[in-house]
Amino acid sequence: MKVVAIASYKGGVGKTTLTANIGAAIASLGRRVLLIDLDPQANLTLNFYRADTWHTELADQRRTVKAWFESWRPEAIPPPLAGYVTTPPVVAAAIAARGGTLDLLASHLALGDIEMDLVARLGGAQAHRSTRHYFDVYQRLATGLASFSPNDYDLVLIDCPSNFGVITRAAVAACDHLLVPSRPDNQSTTGIEHLMGKLGRFVWEYNRVAELQFGIRPAVKRLEPRLLGVVLTMVQYYRGRPTSFLRPHIDRAGSLGIPVFESMLRLSNRSFVGTAGAQLPAVLSPDLSPDLARDMLALVEEFLRRIRPAGAATTRSVDPSVLVDPAWMS
Ligand SMILES: Nc1ncnc2c1ncn2[C@@H]1O[C@H](COP(=O)(O)OP(=O)(O)OP(=O)(O)O)[C@@H](O)[C@H]1O
Ligand SMILES: [Mg+2]
User: Fold this and answer.
1) pLDDT value, residue 127
2) pLDDT tens digit string along 219-238?
3) Which ligand 1 atom is nearest residue 273's CA?
4) Residue 231: φ, ψ to 5°
5) Contact (CB, 8 A) for 70 and 118
6) Which of 16, 27, 133, 240 has a 20 to 30 A CA-CA distance from 36?
7) Distance of CA 41 from the midpoint of ligand 1 (Å)
């Protein structure tokens, strides 16, 4: 089971769209996929459920990630995540003949309350001083995912909120890989730099606290998330060629040591904007344009190539020594 967190510092760069479409495409190739919506906006969830159904069948029935977090008791074994997972029916019907499955751990609009509880539990800026609470908070999701058997899912995709708060950090602590979508504009590439700085600092801090625990808490392991890379999204095309200025963004990511996917996702308002009510990601839509189908196929092939296990040369490990600003220690 591979766990990939899809994160960015900047909002509206295509995280949720990529999570839904990459997940649905890989499920339709016959794999078992779990999507986790960690964003209180619940956009990923609303890609698969109508708002009224979300209310009655998920929120009211406590089948959301918020309900799972709420069921957590300190020092106790958390309830298995499987009890909170749902299978969106429209997608299930669309991929039934292809042998794969797509499940969802839905979000909740009040997930922000959980985040506030977690921050309070951490105890503010000096969080790393209380190691018991530190790992209780940051290992929760990883512990929840460990409750699945390796055969339950081939791939878990986590759609993160557009910040580097406690919930995103818990996703980083639970993932094998990070995927960073970005629009080819200056604000978005600056967002990548911010994210890398925050990420390097968190991984460094976590591993430093973890080292103090080796021998005391055998379950605590070093974090070694690998950067799958940046995927450029909403790229403008004209006559089959990108017209967005891509080179500066590719160079800037390269200068940070982050690989950039060769494949990218073109801008297509017709396919992506205002289609949430369809409960079917664009990649499974019968109206999918041939251009977009080609983009998605190339993207998914490259994604699968990059998450191949053991020393895949196409990913980079997070190098905290380059990215970390050790000022937090003072
Ligand atoms: N390739 C695309 N072409 C056109 N529109 C797109 C494309 N990808 C995403 N969109 C649209 O852009 C908006 C933002 O995309 P999305 O919600 O995936 O971004 P996000 O990074 O998850 O945003 P947020 O920070 O709000 O979580 C949505 O309305 C989505 O439908
Ligand atoms: Mg989103």
Assistant:
1) 52
2) 778 999 999 999 999 999 88
3) 31
4) -110, 120
5) no
6) 133
7) 13
